[in-house]
């Protein structure tokens, strides 16, 4: 059964993407690497068939920016030789996501449109649940429906099935 994950995008990256005219463009690729600033999707356990939800912590709220289903994961150094011309053009178009040291590229069919105004409602934020081999956890730094600290979403984390379904519905409700 496919899994779903969140990955935190920095506010600088979000501003850069918005200024670069990427708002409303469908997500087609994501980048991962070996460092904390750009974590590895492969090391987090992401596989083809899984869904990734980029999120942003901004003004004490968690924003879900979109969703993309992963169809392939390729090493970044092989992107030029493995990608068809159309996909390579998309790689160049999404180069703003390539911050820092990149080692992997996640490709997918066009996902949801990228948007910066979809706020996770306070009641969902309070029950948003992540799962791992250690068990399940909710976000610790939520007070009065606001995200006080973003520590719990920094990185790539697997969502439980119920939280993934609710985020998916939130993205669908705000993308059409």
CATH topology title: ph1033 like fold
Radius of gyration: 15 Å
* SS strand fraction: 25-35%
Q: Please provide the ordered H/E string of secondary-structure elements.
A: EHEHEEEEHHEHEEEEEH
How does the overall form come out from the CA principal axes? Answer: globular
Kindly state the number of beta strands: 12
Helices and strands: which structural class?
alpha+beta
What's the CATH first level?
Answer: Alpha Beta
Which stretches are poorly predicted, pLDDT < 50 over at least 5 residues?
none
The domain count comes to: 1
Straight-line distance between termini: 27 Å
Keywords:
ph1033 like fold, 12 strands, five-stranded mixed beta sheet, 176 residues
Structural notes for this entry:
- The chain is an alpha+beta fold and 176 residues long.
- The protein has a single domain (4-175), classed as ph1033 like fold.
- It contains six helices and twelve strands.
- The protein has helices at residues 11-19, 41-44, 79-82, 85-93, 122-127, 161-175; strands at residues 4-8, 29-32, 51-58, 61-64, 68-69, 72-75, 104-107, 129-132, 135-138, 142-143, 146-147, 156-158.
- The strands form four sheets. Strands 1, 3, 4, 5 and 12 form a five-stranded mixed β-sheet that branches. A three-stranded antiparallel β-sheet has the order 2-7-6, with no helix packed on it.
- Strand 8 and strand 9 form a beta hairpin.
- It starts with a strand and ends with a helix.
- The mean pLDDT is 90.
